[in-house]
Amino acid sequence: MIKVGIVGAGMVAGTHVRALQDLQDIATVVGVHARNTERLTRFCEAHRLQAAVTLDDLFDRGVDALIVLTPPNARREIVARAAEASKHVLLEKPIERNTENATELVELCERAGVTLGVVFQNRFRESSQKLLSFLAEKRFGELASAQALVPWWRPQSYYDEPGRGTYARDGGGVLISQAIHTLDLLQVFTGPVASVQAMAGTTKLHRMEAEDFVAGGVMFASGAIGAVVATTASYPGQAETIVLDYETASVRLQSGVLEINHHDGRTERFGEPSGTGGGADPMAFPHHWHAAALRDFLEAIRDGGQPVVTGREGLKVHRLIDALVTSARLGKRVEIAG
Predict the structure, then answer these.
(1) 123-279+316-335 in CATH: which number?
(2) Side-chain-side CA neighbours of residue 247 (13 Å)
(3) Nearest C-alpha neighbor of 48 from the set 21, 76, 8
(4) Which of 315, 282, 277 minimizes the C-alpha distance to 118?
(5) How far is CA 62 from the centre of its chain?
(6) Most buried pick, 50, 113, 215, 256, via CB within 10 A?
(7) Which of the four pLDDT bands, split at 50, 70 and 90, describes residue 113?
C-alpha cells in the first residue's frame, strides 16, 4: 500500500480526495499539510483526514509520495525537500510559473531519482483514449489542420483572490491556469508545435494583471497549420473544443464526447458529455479523470515504471505557453525549440 501525503487544501484538493477514495486498493492518505492552518483544519474535518502541521509531520508518517496542490510559486521548496527525502511527487498543473522554473523542478527530481508526475487528467477521458487508439492506427490519414477553442468564463470574484491571475503567483492568466489542459491534449494528438504567432490581452470584463484572452496561429512540426483561442471572458462559459481535420475525416472532441465525421458520410460518436469547469464554478467536473491519472502515477511507483505524464512530458505544454506569451509581447512569430 502506497502512503500518500497531500500538500495544499485549496479548490482542487477535494477532487483529489474523492479520487483517492476510489483507489484504496493501492493507496492510503496519511495526512494533509497546508500553510493556512484554518483552511487545513476545516478541510481535514470535512474529509475525515489527519492534519499535518508541517511537511516533516508527513515525512515522519512514512509517506511514499506527495500530491502537491499548492499555487505554482510555492512548490520549489516542497519538491526539493521531497526529492532529498526520496519521496515521489505528483504535481497539479502547471509544474511551475514558466518553462525555466518548471525545468529546474524536473531536473531536481531526475537527479534525486524520484518519480515526478503531472496531473493532466483530460488525457484519461474515454474519448481521449479512443482517439489516441485511432491515431495510432493512422485511421484518418495525415493531419491537415487543427483548432483549439477554450471559451470559458470566470467572474471577477475569482480574480479577487490575492495572487490569482498574477505573474508572481500563477505565472500568467488563462493560458497557464485554464487552457493548459486543452493545449496539452492538443499536442498529444498533433505532435509538437514548431512556431506560433499570437495576440493576447486583458478584456474590460476583468481586473487582473495577466491575460484573459489569447488568439494564436500555430504551425506544427508535421507541417499542419492551426489556431488556438482561449479566454475566461466568454459568459457563461462553454466546454473546450479540439477540432482536427485529417485526409479522410474531421474529428471533434468536446465535453468528453468524440465525434468523427468521415468523408464518406459516416459519423461515429464515443464518450458521454460531462462538465468541464468552464463556467463560474471551476470545479464543475467529475473526479473520475483525476482517479485515472492518480492510478497511473501510483502504479508507476509500485511497478518501478514511469507515469504517462512525466515531468519531461509536462514541459512540452510549458514551452508552447511561453512561446504564445512571448509572441504576443514581441508582436512577431516565435519558434519553439524541440
Answers:
(1) 3.30.360.10
(2) 6
(3) 21
(4) 315
(5) 28
(6) 256
(7) very high
> Of 146-160, 262-276, 277-291, where does mean pLDDT reach its minimum?
277-291
Q: For the chain, what are the domain ranges?
A: 2-121+290-308, 123-279+316-335
Give me the sign of the Cα torsion angle 48, 49, 52, 55: negative
- Which grid coordinates are listed for 228? 488556438
DSSP 276-322: -S-SS-TT-S-SHHHHHHHHHHHHHHHHT---SSBHHHHHHHHHHHH
C-alpha cell at 181: 489542459
Specify the pairing of strand 116-119 against strand 213-220. Answer: unpaired
pTM over 0.90: yes
Half-sphere exposure of 100 (CA within 13 A, CB side): 1
Cβ(319)–Cβ(102) under 8 Å? no
> φ, ψ for residue 291 (rounded to 5)?
-60, -40
What distance separates the 2 farthest-apart alpha carbons in the chain? 62
Nearest CA among 61, 81, 45 for reference residue 5:
61
What cell was used for 249? 475525416
Burial of 161 (0-12, 13-18, 19+ CB in 10 A): exposed
pLDDT of residue 59: 96
Q: Using an 8 Å Cβ cutoff, are 293 and 123 in contact?
A: yes
Residue pointed to by grid coordinates 501525503 = 5
Would you call 10 exposed, middle or buried from its count of C-beta atoms within 10 A (0-12, 13-18, 19+)? Answer: middle
Q: Quick one: 62 exposed, middle or buried, by C-beta within 10 A (0-12, 13-18, 19+)? A: exposed
Query: Measured between alpha carbons, how far is residue 168 from residues 106, 164, 209, 298 in Å?
Result: 20, 9, 10, 31
**For 2-121+290-308, which CATH class?**
alpha beta
Q: Under a CB-based contact definition with an 8 Å cutoff, are residues 161 and 206 in contact? A: no
